[in-house]
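Side project, low priority. Logging it here so it doesn't get lost.
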Amino acid sequence: MPKKKTLLNLLISAAALFALSGCMSNSILNVAERRVVEFPELVDGIKGYRLIFVGEMHDKKWTHTAQLKVISALKEAGVNVSIGVEMFRKESQKDLDGWVAGTMSEEEFGAVYRKNWGLPWRQYREIFLYARDKKVPVVALNISRKIIHQVFTKGFHALGPEDLKELGDIECSVDKPYEEFIREAMEEHDLKDASFQNFCEAQMVWDSTMARNSVEYLKDNNGATLVVLAGSGHSWKRGIPAQVGKRSDIKFVVIIPEAEDKPSRENVTAMDADYLWLRW
């Protein structure tokens, strides 16, 4: 009997840790209506949009599971889905095409992935396997590290004429919540001594580039729906979506995962997202 009691206690403790770890639930908060909906209602609410942002916390596997769930549900609903990804730079588009076409092995593609992105392949593996198996186009949205590094270290106007012409005029013009986010990001990356102005301009270059590449893809692929997978800071409405709004009249919808502090179900607003995917 004591052994059974000990085992029960262990199981209860394990369940509690599982819940506290921030695992995926099937409940989503409709932010504007302050109403919790289940996954099928979410799909019904978003499948008419051509641009769908599904944010992630890069190191939280459950957020990638949620992304794949959205992609596969839209595909099964007959939506002509493509996947836009933050983690690949534009110059790697041929490799993405080769992967989806089945002409690259997982080992070969893994090497390309590691050149583009620093997080473990296992975080995203199921998404890329699904894209290959279902022949879902994957679109590289990001910009070269060289440009981002140059803006971060020297400022936007240190770029060459060609880059400036392609990017357009970029400035650090953000509201208070986005400024707070950028400052927090600097602290998380241990960049307290860096120039906030340069870091902010680099963030704007990042957002603007991914917005431009998303809009161009949709203009070139009439009838396609692009599901953008990017960090929550880029995906919330002040990030890439705001830059999309400056460039086109394409209607978008934003889904971001609930965090431990912000955004949470208590403090998220319609200025942040349309839907908040809840943790347990």
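Brief comment: The two ends are 32 Å apart (CA to CA).
Revisit when time allows.
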